[in-house]
């Protein structure tokens, strides 16, 4: 395929993923609202805390997932089907072993930590244990499904990948309705129903992969050479994924120890909101990532640079366009979405969205670095920067600082990681800094700075309060308490439309190169 054909495939995949992601976002927001109402603040927080114990074990899965996708994309770029088949089988063997390891670790260390270290009301301890067991099973099912997902992404079959994500949220919508009528403990029922959903999605994904790709036939293979290569790559990615999960879940546990349980509920909501927005970028970058890896394997440096710059810029614009109206209307959105809003929710959501704005720029940089396989020094440095968040979190909470400062430190350290990734990609992957600044940094800064004033003024005039109340839960709550949620809808709609219009115009004028505008016009004219 020519580079133009590759870009057309990327555009087609992106359109399919983006459209379906909108559906997923709407369904996810609705189900979260109902689940929070049915479970209540405390049980909702407990689910996030207990699930976090199992999530700690899955940092191995994250590392293996990156390794599988990288090796599959490289072999597809080289056109070696036999080698690709061996990569799949060796990966599946590793995943089965890791699943066994996670079960053993969960039934020993995990249960000890759950029952002796966490602050859980005695009358909810039994339900928490049921949640732990079902979450552990769900994790193992998702783990074994990963090689099939990696194969689908490597073959760039994004349409199915998008549809299966919609099937997942639709089934979870069904879970919500079953939860409302469940005669047994709601918290335990929720975990059990989510496990059932994961089984359905696994069998659908497995059936599709086996039918479409001959390489997805598992054979018990112990290829020592390939295993060593994948293990070496996974070992270094393990540092970063382990540090990232340790920070994320360590923060949850520290909040559980130093703050009221409702603070964990606020953090869980913030995670859901930010994840829903960032999923747009994950799906978008999934269209580019296989091409980045294949371009690196083929030593097509010019095309690689073009892909990295475009993916970074477009990813940021996508998140920023969604984030700006949400940031301006955060408290109003939460009051409409949720019946009751826990303290700190608006603040947590806002700061977390800022984190993912930075992360949207970083994705193509670490994908490029991973494509080469030479990642030892990179992974060690990024992991050390990330892990600094944990001692900082402990100190801040121990000495009585407001919980939102924990997330502020997290965002700042992620900014340092982004700068390091850029410098590393320049030195080791041949991504030149001057074109990157010209094609990515300058447009991003210009569009961001000029997009904010008009929507901010609109928001101020409509709400008769300054944007600083966005970060003041008490003030915002007092103001909103005099307005029914329905009364907020017109202001929210107008602010959103102004924000999207201002952002869209500025992206077109300042954010796109003439060649990019030309390609967009041609795509729109094409029947």
Please describe what this structure looks like.
With 527 residues, the protein is mostly helical. Residues 465-484 have low confidence and may be disordered. The chain has one domain (3-525). The longest helix is centred in the N-terminal third of the chain and has 55 residues, at 3-57. The chain starts with a helix and ends with a helix. It has helices spanning 3-57, 59-78, 81-116, 125-154, 158-181, 186-212, 224-258, 261-297, 301-328, 330-337, 345-372, 376-387, 389-398, 404-428, 433-451, 453-463, 473-480, 485-511, 514-525. Helix 7 packs parallel to helix 12 (376-387) and helix 12 (376-387) packs antiparallel against helix 14.
CA-based gyration radius: 23 Å
Gross geometry: globular
Write the element-wise H/E pattern from the N-terminal end onward.
HHHHHHHHHHHHHHHHHHH
Helical residue percent band: over 70%
How are the elements arranged and paired?
Elements: H1 3-57, H2 59-78, H3 81-116, H4 125-154, H5 158-181, H6 186-212, H7 224-258, H8 261-297, H9 301-328, H10 330-337, H11 345-372, H12 376-387, H13 389-398, H14 404-428, H15 433-451, H16 453-463, H17 473-480, H18 485-511, H19 514-525
Helix pairs in contact: 1-3, 1-4, 1-5, 1-7, 1-8, 2-3, 2-4, 2-7, 2-8, 3-4, 4-6, 5-6, 7-12, 7-13, 8-9, 8-11, 9-11, 9-15, 9-18, 10-18, 11-14, 12-14, 13-14, 15-18, 16-18
């Amino acid at each position: 395929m020519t580079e133009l054909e590759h870009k057309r495939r990327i555009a087609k995949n992106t359109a399919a993923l983006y459209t379906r992601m909108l559906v997923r976002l709407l369904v996810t927001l609705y189900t979260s609202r109902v689940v929070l109402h049915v479970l209540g603040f405390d049980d909702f927080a407990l689910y996030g805390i207990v699930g976090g114990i199992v999530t700690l074990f899955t940092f191995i899965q994250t590392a293996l997932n990156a390794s599988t996708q990288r090796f599959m994309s490289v072999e597809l770029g080289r056109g070696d089907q036999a080698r690709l088949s061996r990569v799949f089988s060796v990966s599946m063997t590793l995943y089965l072993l890791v699943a066994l390891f996670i079960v053993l670790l969960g039934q020993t260390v995990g249960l000890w930590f759950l029952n002796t270290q966490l602050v859980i009301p005695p009358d909810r301890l039994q339900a928490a244990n049921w949640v732990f067991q079902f979450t552990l099973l769900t994790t193992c099912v998702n783990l074994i499904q990963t090689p099939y997902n990696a194969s689908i992404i490597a073959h760039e079959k994004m349409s199915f990948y998008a549809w299966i994500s919609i099937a997942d949220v639709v089934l979870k919508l069904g879970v919500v309705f079953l939860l409302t009528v469940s005669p047994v403990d709601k918290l335990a029922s929720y975990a059990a129903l989510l496990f059932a959903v994961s089984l359905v999605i696994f069998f659908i994904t497995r059936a599709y992969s086996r039918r479409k790709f001959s390489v997805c036939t598992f054979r018990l293979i112990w290829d020592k050479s390939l295993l060593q290569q994948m293990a070496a790559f996974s070992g270094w990615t393990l540092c970063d994924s382990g540090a990232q999960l340790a920070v994320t879940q360590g923060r949850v546990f520290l909040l559980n120890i130093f703050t009221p349980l409702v603070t964990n509920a606020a953090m869980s909501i913030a995670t859901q909101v930010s994840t829903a927005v960032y999923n747009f970028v994950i799906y978008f970058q999934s269209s580019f990532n296989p091409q980045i890896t294949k371009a690196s394997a083929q030593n097509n440096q010019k095309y690689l640079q073009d892909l990295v710059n475009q993916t970074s810029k477009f990813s940021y614009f996508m998140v920023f366009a969604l984030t700006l109206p949400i940031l301006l209307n955060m408290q109003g959105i939460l009051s409409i979405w949720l019946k009751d809003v826990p303290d700190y929710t608006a603040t947590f959501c806002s700061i977390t969205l800022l984190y993912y704005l930075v992360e949207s720029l970083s994705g193509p940089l670490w994908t490029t670095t991973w494509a080469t396989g030479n990642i030892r020094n990179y992974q060690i440095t990024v992991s050390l920067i990330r892990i600094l968040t944990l001692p900082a979190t402990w100190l801040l909470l121990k000495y009585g600082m407001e919980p939102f400062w924990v997330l502020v430190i997290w965002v700042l350290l992620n900014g340092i990681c982004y700068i390091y990734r850029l410098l590393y990609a320049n030195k080791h992957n041949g991504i030149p800094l001057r074109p990157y600044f010209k094609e990515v940094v300058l447009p991003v800064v210009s569009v961001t700075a000029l997009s904010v004033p008009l929507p901010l003024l609109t928001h101020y005039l409509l709400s008769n309060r300054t944007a600083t109340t966005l970060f003041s839960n008490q003030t915002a709550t007092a103001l909103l308490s005099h307005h029914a949620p329905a009364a907020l809808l017109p202001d929210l709609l107008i602010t959103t439309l102004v924000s999207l219009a201002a952002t869209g115009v500025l992206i077109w004028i300042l954010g796109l190169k003439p060649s990019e505008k030309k390609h967009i016009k041609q795509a729109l004219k094409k029947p």
